[in-house]
Specification:
The chain has 510 residues and is α/β, with parallel strands linked by helices. The protein folds into 3 domains: 11-138, no CATH class; 144-265 and 405-450, Rossmann fold (3-Layer(aba) Sandwich), CATH 3.40.50.2300; 269-396 and 486-505, Rossmann fold. The protein has 15 helices and 19 strands. The strands form 4 sheets. Strands 6, 7, 8, 9, 10, 11 and 17 form a 7-stranded mixed β-sheet that branches. Strands 13-12-14-15-16-18-19 form a 7-stranded mixed β-sheet, with helices on one face. A 3-stranded antiparallel β-sheet has the order 2-1-5. Helix 12 (354-363) links the parallel strand 14 and strand 15 (369-373). The relative contact order is 0.10.
Amino acid sequence: MRPLLAPPLTPQELRGKQIYFEGTSPGGAKIKAYIGKDRIALPGSAATCGSCHGSDGRGRPEAGRIPSDITWDHLMKPYGHSHPLDRNHPAFTEASLKRSILNGNDPAGNPLEASMPTYSMSLKDINDLIAYLKRLQEDFDPGLEEKSIRIRTLLPAGGRTAAIGQGMVEVMAAYFEEINSNGGIYSRKLKLIAAPYETAGPSALADATRLMDDENIFAVVGAVIAGADRDMAELAEDKKVPLIGPFSFFSADPNALNEFTFYLFSGLNEQVRALVDFAAVELKLDAPRIAVLGRGDAHQKELQTAITEQCEIHGWTSLTGYSFDTDSLDTAAAVRALKEQGVDCLFYLSFRGLKPLLEAAEAINWRPYIFLPGALVQKEILGLPVGFQKKIYLSYPTLPSDQTTAGMSQFQMLLKKHELSVKHLTSQISALVAAKILVEGLKRTGKDLSREKFMRSLEKLYEFQTGLTPLITYGPNRRIGARGSHIVTVDLENKNFTPIGKWIEIPDST
């Protein structure tokens, strides 16, 4: 059994761990592996110890081979070892294990199976490797204990998103309680630890870093990171902590490596791309003149780039960006200038200021198409001038139409059983789905759990039915589960929202 809190690896053991899993020397020396009867020479990185013997050293049958258990307790069994074909030998010693790795003979002098490579490496590297092998059986990923898996969620300590986070935590805690009451995941119970963090001021990132740096957390699920989207994802990447289903406006930075964050839905970037596709395919607009209005910040620049790239796919090249301050904008002058430029499509990327802008546009009889992500919509949108009927289109990554009867029934039963109230329904559903995906990934990984294997299991999730959202699919190069959007128009006459068209999928290659 693994100690619940094993001491951290020493520098020597850490060096040995690199050799075990990567087949490379931390000091830069060459490591070579010799394979098969002909002893074909390969770089050590092409035949690592971990690739056959596993992250726990116990080995798993694969392709007709049965790699040996190389945990230290097993190797040092005092009564020795028996292998197929009557190969027997006494227990290993540290010296005989080194000879076995370097020369390919067991302690009795018998040759090892041909499938077992031999290695050439420096004395320092072989000593480092042996040091790590002594610790291998207790070197589990953080957060894994004999009878539990420690899961963290992050929620704002204050501000308008604090209540959203609280409602999400309650739903996830209730769902994990149900899982635990049925035996947990392979006899391990899920422990959810809610951690509030500051969201404003210079201490915000440091506070979040401290929470993500917890050495005894296996993964983070359903964290509220809106407003610190990219910083949190970067932290997850840096700390190598799986971040599952964060509540976020922006998905992964398109210019950065993202391996550890698994988003449920499209962010604003993918949503504006879906709006461009809708305008081209459903509205059949022909080379429109497009203006992008926003605050001129980094977010607008990124979204404007996404719009531009998606427009180019359809052969549209007339696009101009404008920045403005909603408190000082001369709306009359702005709409006159846009009309004179022949703008007939407007992407609006701000929370405020749309109503006075469109009222000024209505006054001069200028009615362009208006596109904006649903996350930026305010209540005032139902009070826009009726002249813009069938002219305003919004994108949403999920709608109530995605919810099945069974999915909603399960959700409502969970709320009722645990006496939970509906607090921000959409975010609570998002939290439950994140928890479901975490559990599904754990189940698919099996008893031999590690972060690496868990993420590879999630990568194989294909059209996973949550009952509450669009189908979720991940892959080696895909970290957005439902990569696309629904399109909704605003019925200004009847004061409601009307979904139109089909779900618009954004290909992974964009």
